[in-house]
Amino acid sequence: MRTVTAAAASAPPDRRTAPPSRLRRSWDRNWYAWAMVLPVVIVLAVLIFYPLGRGIWLSFTNLNEANQAAEICTKSITGSQVCDENPNPWEYAGLDNYVRVLTGQVGQFWEWTGITLIWTFVGVACHYGLGLGLAVMLNRPMRGRGLYRVLLVLPWAVPAFVSAFAWKFIFNERFGLVNSVLAAFGIDPVSWFADRWTSLFTAIVTNVWLGVPFMMVALLGGMQTIPGELYEAAEIDGASPWQRFRAITLPGLRPTSMTVILLGTIWTFNLFPIIFLVTEGEPAGQTEILVTGAYRAGFEGIRNYSLASTYGVLILSILLVFSVFYRRALRKQGEVW
Amino acid sequence: MSQATVSVEAEAEVAVPAAPTGTARRTGRSRRGRAASLLLHGALTVASLIAIGPIVWVLLSSFKPGYAVQSTDLALVEDPTLSNYRYVLFDTSFLRWLANSVLVAALTMVIGIFLSATTGYAVSRFNFPGRRPLMMVFLVTQMFPVAILIVPIYTIMARLGLINTLPSLVIAYLTIAIPFCAWMLKGYFDSIPTTLDEAAALDGCGPFVTFWRVVLPLARPAIAVTAFYTFLTAWGEVAYASAFIQTDDQFTLAYGLQQFVPRFNPQWEYLTAAAVLVTVPAGLVFLFAQRHLVSGLTAGGTKG
């Protein structure tokens, strides 16, 4: 730090005698930039775009666990191995997977999509609403603010899989906390995982509990970038708290809100562990969302890799369409991106 | 820049509703009414209870013997014992899983941050051709569902003979970590005044030196937050861990703990103890990092 300011004070540019041309300078800068970006670009290409390309290609094949090998080897009684060419190797299958998935011959694509949409919408709405409410309350000067903040942020510190187990435990039919509390009020215990909607409810509760702290902290940060003079001016003009909230806080939060809602939607849409561990799709696969459905297609039973990839492509398409529309809506409001 | 436009906008809108409410109600925010104060604290207390309730319940349950955990009575403490912890720590592979998890998460964190910090800086400071597409890529990769990458990465790992090894998990987690780290760090670098860079450049520092000596030390909070976040992501990942790892000695915690809750006869008393053991270290680091969270996150969150 100190060396820097000292350097700024003694400013003679001792670089070269002639100032470099603008073009030359821009090339210099870009050279550095590209060098800095290069490792990540390579990693992204190898780890994301190559697999992505392959995944898209796989979705046009019929690859599964049974037909993936080029040769099938069987051990004979003498211990020697006999290898035969796989009589039924995997091959290009065109749009078969898509047709079968979209027409419902395999899996329950539309049903899962419906569940996913409900799961995402309710989840993000609760995240944002509760996060905003708590952030507004925490943004006021008051006693014990630091303590509240730490307590409210705690769920975030719990790894998702631990919360999933914790809530599954709490919603347990026989001895879970929720049913015990209900019993204390004389209400019959609910078998949460026996019905689609109560089962989905447990997963959403878990997700909301887990996701609110992030929203709260992000929005709290956004609020702190709003200049305090605005509130003072509004107060002098006699604006009520609600008016101040509507006229200052909400517009000031817009950039933050737009980002966290977009990210929250994408994350929730693809959120794997909660559904996978809390409801496990119970009852009978009725609370499966697209991501867990795709996972089960690919890694449970006879592993159907091509089918899982097909779901993957469909999920990605849905999200891409969503973000394009989202961005367009934002651009109309004059947002930066 | 975006911030400036926002405040202008806000100011314009403030002027409108201010006029009609002429009732001289100037209760300053510091001079809140007693009822309002009560309401505020009440709401926050309820919220805090909901936030810590499940954690406390699991913590309490972890000290109960099995029959008390599986009872319908609402007892806070019943025959407290440490036997669950003893069992989890010494009679299961828990410590092995813990070591695996720490190794995987730490490697992901270090490699992820290391690779993406320069990128975040370059994207933040230089307006080079390819900058905007790169930012788009970072955002789009956030959308990639685990389902589309998991199969190809699985087949690649299988071909490389890496299935059932920890490096396969690190590689898989980097696909999640790198775009996120680069995005977050770029946002924070944006908030560091460029005048510092210029001063360093006048001093004769090249971009790499400037980055290393000037910008990186200033970005310590953001790096702490990003590192922590990456660590937790890898720590809690379930899908790849379930798909890639097959033998008990290579499990990570996220997958290993599932062993305690099979569909029939789940051993909740051990699960709760293990859950506490998993959460406590993460929670401590978190409490330490959380004071930086607000500054670290907002920078990343608000600027596109």
Automatic annotation (TrEMBL), chain A:
| Matching Pfam families | BPD_transp_1 (PF00528)
Q: How does it sit in the membrane?
A: Multi-pass membrane protein
Query: What InterPro entries does its record include?
Result: ABC_transporter_permease (IPR051393), MetI-like (IPR000515), MetI-like_sf (IPR035906)
Residue ranges, annotated region (Disordered): 1-21
Q: Which CDD domains match?
A: TM_PBP2
- Which SUPFAM superfamilies does the protein's record reference? MalF N-terminal region-like, MetI-like
**Biological process according to GO:** transmembrane transport
Residue ranges annotated for the ABC transmembrane type-1 domain, each copy included: 113-326
Q: Which domain of life is it from?
A: Bacteria
What does the UniProt keyword field contain? Cell membrane, Membrane, Transmembrane, Transmembrane helix, Transport
The portions of this protein that span the membrane are: 31-52, 117-138, 150-170, 200-220, 260-278, 305-326
Its annotated compartments are:
Cell membrane
Q: Which Gene Ontology CC terms are recorded?
A: plasma membrane
What family does the Swiss-Prot or TrEMBL record give for this protein?
Belongs to the binding-protein-dependent transport system permease family.
* Name of the molecule in the record: ABC transporter permease
Q: Tell me which species this is from.
A: Salinispora arenicola
UniProtKB/TrEMBL annotation, chain B:
Q: Where in the cell is it found?
A: Cell membrane
Q: Cite the entry's keywords alphabetically.
A: Cell membrane, Membrane, Sugar transport, Transmembrane, Transmembrane helix, Transport
Instruction: Quote a single Gene Ontology cellular component term.
Output: plasma membrane
The alphabetized list of GO BP terms reads: maltodextrin transmembrane transport
List all membrane-crossing ranges.
35-60, 97-122, 134-154, 166-185, 222-245, 270-289
**Membrane topology qualifier:** Multi-pass membrane protein
* Ranges where the ABC transmembrane type-1 domain occurs: 98-289
- Domain of life of the organism in this record? Bacteria
> Is Transport there in the keyword field?
yes
Q: Name one Pfam family in it.
A: BPD_transp_1
Any one Gene Ontology MF annotation carried by this entry is: ABC-type maltose transporter activity
Transmembrane as UniProt keyword: yes
Tell me the InterPro entries matching this sequence: BP-dep_ABC_trans_perm, MetI-like, MetI-like_sf
Q: Which family does it belong to?
A: Belongs to the binding-protein-dependent transport system permease family. MalFG subfamily.
Protein name (record): Carbohydrate ABC transporter membrane protein 2 (CUT1 family)
What are the top taxonomic ranks of the organism?
Bacteria, Bacillati, Actinomycetota, Actinomycetes, Micromonosporales
